Amino acid sequence: MEICTVGGYNEVGKNMTAIKMGDEVIIIDMGFYLPAVIDLGEEEDHDVSFEELKRAGAFPDDSLIKDWKDKVKAIVIGHCHLDHIGAVPYLADKYKCPVYGTPFTIEVLKSICNDEKIKLKNDLRKINPNSKLKLTNKITLELIGITHSTLQSSLILLGSDEGKVLYCNDFKFDNTPVLGKKPNYERLRKLSKENVVALISESLYAHREGKTYSEKIARELLKDVMLNTNSKGKAMFVTTFASHLERIYSAIEFAKKLNRKVLFLGRSMAKYIKAAEAVGIVNFSKDGIIAGYSKQVKKELEKVEKNRGKYVVICTGSQGEPNSVLDKILRKRLPFKFTEKDNVIFSCRTIPDPINIANREVLEKKLKKYKARIFTDVHASGHASREDLRDLIEMVKPKNVIPSHGDNVKLNALGEIAEECGYKMGSTLHIMHNGKRVKL
Asked: Is the peptide bond before 170 cis (omega within 30 degrees of 0)?
């Protein structure tokens, strides 16, 4: 088999990998480079064109596999985050093949296509986590249920007579998830006896010692801030990743304990919630008002301005993105003004990219001028840390390890873990970069 690391091997994001088994190719993931998209202002109420995105460097360079184009039999997406799914509406119909993903992932993809007025020619096919099907007469696909910072995330297992490839972008080992099931450890352990030729794994936090904390820990942190901080008569804003439905679920519950009404504000917030409701995994509409577009958002914020102690606003802006709800408020483009001792809770970490870090710093400086109370890092990551990655390698026992989803520092950090597990650089451990190929 041959693997081409198309995107996500020089940077965090832009994930795309092509795997050739025999004479057939399967593409896994087709994602955005998020800083480029954020810089264009993806929350704004107008569509960003293909050309704008291309010029900004948002897409993986799929010309790197142009010689494989006619061999591609399927595109498989592991979960619904934009750095894995975002480029599908723009690139997928170059390939005459279906797109596979979990029901929630496919529903988010449909929502993105509708938003951008794109009609994909590809057939969109839903496959439940922990299920298996034949992609072709020679290649099987299995989605292995895993935990991450969004629901219905899966590890992708491709199988053929030549062996198996396990693709692990992105995951954590969460034994006490707030929503959804625990990781399918039983299936992962069995893989050690099933000729896994290659393990392709994210390396985002390979440098971070220890184990990633459970979402249950983040829930307790959020509970402490929301319920045990004096907020009487003051506004309360909670911002997190729009796709983080577990975190939103917790925020809703604590808002109810405070006897506050819930508002969900922001285009991407509305997109992910409605997609999750469409496949029956949440029902947040019964808990609050969902406002995606500017007119709706303005209407709801006018209510908050008049009675700020009555609401919890769950909104976009966790990364300080231009044109997110928080950004628009602070640039006086929405009818709300923060006052002294209003509560702003960042239930997230800043994505480790210079653009994101700068955007968040600007946002927080503006909030401090209004003397708002700021709570940061009320969060537990959705990405595996060093010892989780070691556990994955030792559980699966692959013949080869390929670090992915990171720059050179991150890839090498996972490489060090693999070497500690007995893998040898250039032989059974392969540090790859965008556009490189390896035959196994």
From this structure: yes
The SS3 call for residue 47 is coil
* Whole-angstrom Cα Rg for the chain: 22
Q: Which residues pair with 16 in a beta bridge?
A: 7
Classified as helix, coil or strand, 325 is: helix
The model's pLDDT over 49-80, given as tens digits with 9 standing for 90+, comes to: 788 888 888 999 999 999 999 999 999 999 99
pLDDT of residue 39: 63
Instruction: For CA atoms 416, 218, 279, 146, give the dihedral sign.
Output: positive
In the numeric block, the tokens 């927080």 are attached to 364
Please state the domain count of the chain.
2
Q: Are residues 306 and 396 in the same domain?
A: no
417, 393 contact by CB (below 8 A): yes
Q: Answer whether 68's CB lies under 8 Å from 435's CB.
A: no
5 in Cβ contact with 402 (< 8 Å)? yes
Containing domain of residue 261, as a range? 215-375
- Could you give the C-alpha distances from 342 to 111, 150, 152, 236, in angstroms and in order? 34, 28, 35, 6
- The CA distance from 87 to 33, in Å, is 9
Of 358, 375, 392, the position where a domain reaches its end is 375
> Which run of H or E residues covers position 111?
helix 103-115
CATH of the domain at 421: 3.60.15.10
Q: What is the pTM of this model?
A: 0.94
Q: What single string gives the DSSP state of each residue in 278-320? A: HTTS--GGGTEEEE-SHHHHHHHHHHHHH-GGGEEEEES-TT-
